[in-house]
Amino acid sequence: MINLDHAATTPLEPAVLEAMRPWLTESHGNPSSQHALGQAARAGVERAREQVAQALAVDPLEVIFTSGGTEADNAGVKGLAWAARAAGRGQHVVTTALEHHAVLEACEWLATHQGFALTVVPPERDGIVDPQRLLDAVTDDTVLVAAMAANNEVGTLQPIAEIGPALAERGVALHVDAVQAFGRSPVDIGAWQATSVALTAHKINGPKGVGVWVLRRGAAATPLSHGGGQERGVRSGTLAVPLIAGCGEAIARTAARAEDEIPRLRRLRDRLLTGLERAGGVRLNGCRDRRLPHNAHVAVDGVDGEALLLALDAAGVAASTGSACQSGAAEPSHVLAAMGAPLEGTGHLRLTCGLDTSEDDVDTAATAFAAAVDRLRGAGGGFA
Known about the structure:
Strand content: 5-15%
Strand order of the largest sheet: 2-8-7-6-5-3-4
Structural class: alpha/beta
Mean pLDDT: 96
Helix content: 40-55%
Shape: globular
CATH topology of the largest domain: Aspartate Aminotransferase, domain 2
Largest sheet: 7 strands, mixed
Order of helices and strands: EHHEHEHEHEHEHEEHEEHEHEH
Distance between the termini: 27 Å
């Protein structure tokens, strides 16, 4: 199977598995225990924390381990908003229509169940939010702006460095979903002046079920859950040492190879796009230049996206029609709708390269794509 769905998840790198193995087979201590077994586990957690902190150029105390990007996004959005309102700073939140559901639905929940006012800023047709339009949505009552660094569907890069300093001057917290960006685009938390940042390990050849929430020192956040007071008291729960060890190793290895890997991914992506466009009636969704180097998200005229996805799957190519984070949902993409992309009579497909992708892979996939498109158009497009 040729995997061109790395935006959904990535295979576990062997070196990451080796970093996890001792905590799966040899050392079983609870990091909160005071005896030697517990302190050995604590040392493993702190090593991973140092790896993450070094890769992100933050203080290790700012690194909080979570169960993944969804929890980190929810902790950042809800935790910052609750704490700001409790401090009497206001109760208005701003986000964008491009956000991952973990951010968008958390913001909507604050509005529908917690009494917050919410402004959702739409993107331009190229899939990028105008930074001035976003800043214009901020009022004296705004306590939080939540914006992603890179879109998980169409791959467009968002102007975080342009909005972060302006928000900091106004005393407005900024939460950034950097799940798709890390390792494929610069993640400069200092330049962004972000208050809170979310990452996850399984997008970068690490294990599923673990992520990182960077919460800058001095920032107040109300915890989502209460219990043992782990992780600076904002994320209670027994720490998953094997997963955390794998997360630290994956982040460290991804950061170390990014300088060489990003150009390689870009070359593969461009080669793939050239092959896809030969089928005719194929257009890139989103900005061609300001996008993730591994993401080829295309509109295909006269072909149903789900039918095309299944045809490629039968041909041995794994792709996606959008985000894989909704449980089996086959609903129209909120991202494409917000961009004003055509949805009737047009299929959309996301293909994303990764660490294990080769030139032969993308060439084979492009050939399979052209054959599937030709066959489906001849059969009426595959529309139900």
